[in-house]
Design goal:
The protein is of the alpha/beta class. Helices cover about 35% and strands about 25% of the residues. It folds into two domains: about 10-185, 3-Layer(aba) Sandwich (Rossmann fold); about 195-399, CoaB-like (Rossmann fold), CATH 3.40.50.10300. It has 14 helices and 21 strands. The strands form six sheets. The chain has an eight-stranded mixed β-sheet with strand order 12-11-8-13-16-17-19-20, with helices on both faces. Helix 4 (about 95-105) packs across helix 7 (about 135-150).
Length: about 400
């Protein structure tokens, strides 16, 4: 899923690389962090240089790599102090079992471990090791201690390892680490809130191979789920069929039809503080779906008998203890009239309106926010940027 290229703009990240085979993935991680706007400085342990050369990281980051605690690029050889004081975050990926043990016990016998001990910024680590090393009681004790000390542990993943075994211990993928770091850096304006939301199209079957659907890509809904998670909310995303993975930290519930979507939302809404209805839900469904594929030789001009689908947003908004409800209005004309009518008719505190021709199915959109204070048009932007702006507006309304 695409990211806004400026989400780490102005951020200075120190990336520590330790001696594991997953070090080769850290080269891609540097590229992704820079693509997201970060300035990246790489610190390597001596063992890490046996897997990837410092020259690789220098070429990718645009900065010389730090290796030696006695490096004289800083006055008085105080690299371990200066590097961390100017950083927004220190990220170690991969973090070997040995390095985690050093962190847990406060050892400082090289530049990277000294830097972690002397840091003045958050520390995130992505463990990477053989499954038996990960499962060893000593490693598990160290992980518990590190979490108690306030470190942020990313992973590890479960899967095939370099040794050929299968299990937990492999480093999470660079894309996930980058996304976790972006999320970590965002203000937590929805901390403690539970969000239930819908996204994507619904599909109403006519027969086993045909159905009624629409051109919704789900991109706006997924961008909004991601922005809510970045803002600290616990997010459950009830989604129609889309070609995207669930955003980092978001729980996805996959559905197909409007009735399934309605059922999934109602089963979860009691615990929600916020409901956001972004999905393009079909207003009607065929009254009777054929059991077998309809043949054109059977009927010259078939007639579809339709019946109305439930209105998920209206049903949620009318609950006795309704959550804060956000509606979406995709119109082809007279946006302000229709969107404001929808807001008042369904008694919604906030409606996000857009013209279908401005962005449905695309990567960018032009939207206007409608609340009791009036209309608030947002500049045309990527759906990621718009999602962050909508969350900011929503958080302000919640006070």
């Amino acid at each position: 899923m695409g990211k806004s290229m400026t989400e780490l703009s102005g951020k200075r990240i120190v990336l520590g690389v330790t001696g594991g085979i997953a070090a080769y993935k850290s080269a891609e991680l540097v590229r992704l962090l820079i693509k997201a706007g970060a300035e990246v400085h790489v610190v390597m342990t001596e063992n890490a240089t046996r897997f990837v050369t410092p020259l690789t990281f220098q070429a990718l980051s645009g900065h010389p790599v730090w290796l030696d605690p006695w490096d004289d690029r800083r006055a008085n050889s105080m690299s371990h102090i200066e590097l961390s004081r100017s950083a927004d975050a220190l990220l170690v990926a991969p973090a070997t079992a040995n390095f985690l043990a050093k962190l847990a016990h406060g050892l400082a016998d090289d530049l990277l471990s000294t830097l972690c001990l002397a840091r003045d910024c958050p520390l995130l680590v992505a463990p990477a090791m053989n499954r038996q090393m990960w499962q060893n009681p000593a490693t598990q004790r160290n992980i518990v201690r590190l979490q108690e000390d306030g470190l942020h542990i990313l992973g590890p993943d479960d899967g095939v390892q370099a040794c050929g075994e299968v299990g937990e211990g492999r480093m999470v993928e660079p894309e996930t680490i980058c996304e976790a770091l972006i999320s970590f850096m965002q203000p937590k304006v929805l901390a403690g809130k539970r969000v239930v939301m819908t996204a994507g199209p619904t599909y109403e079957p006519i027969d086993p191979v045909r159905g009624i659907t629409n051109i919704s890509s789900g991109k706006m809904g997924y961008a909004l789920a991601r922005a809510c998670a970045h803002a600290g909310a616990a997010v459950e995303l009830v989604s129609g069929s889309v070609e995207m993975d669930a955003p980092y930290g978001v729980v996805r519930v996959s559905v197909r039809t409007a009735l399934e979507m309605h059922q999934a939302v109602m089963a979860r809404i009691a615990q929600a503080d916020i409901f956001i209805g972004v999905a393009a839900v079909a207003d009607f469904r065929p009254r009777h779906a054929a059991e077998n594929k309809l043949k054109k030789t059977q009927v010259a001009s078939p007639v579809l008998e339709l019946e109305q689908n439930p209105d998920i947003l209206a049903d949620v908004a009318s609950l006795p203890a309704a959550p804060f409800c956000v509606g979406f209005a995709a119109e082809s004309q007279d946006l302000e009239t229709y969107a404001e009518d929808k807001r008042k008719r369904k008694r919604l505190p906030l409606v996000v309106g857009n013209l279908v021709q401005d962005g449905m199915g695309g990567d960018e959109n032009t939207v206007t926010l409608f609340d009791a204070r009036g209309a608030h048009p947002l500049p045309r932007a990527s759906k990621q940027v718009l999602a962050a702006a909508i969350v900011h507006h929503l958080a302000e309304m919640l006070g």
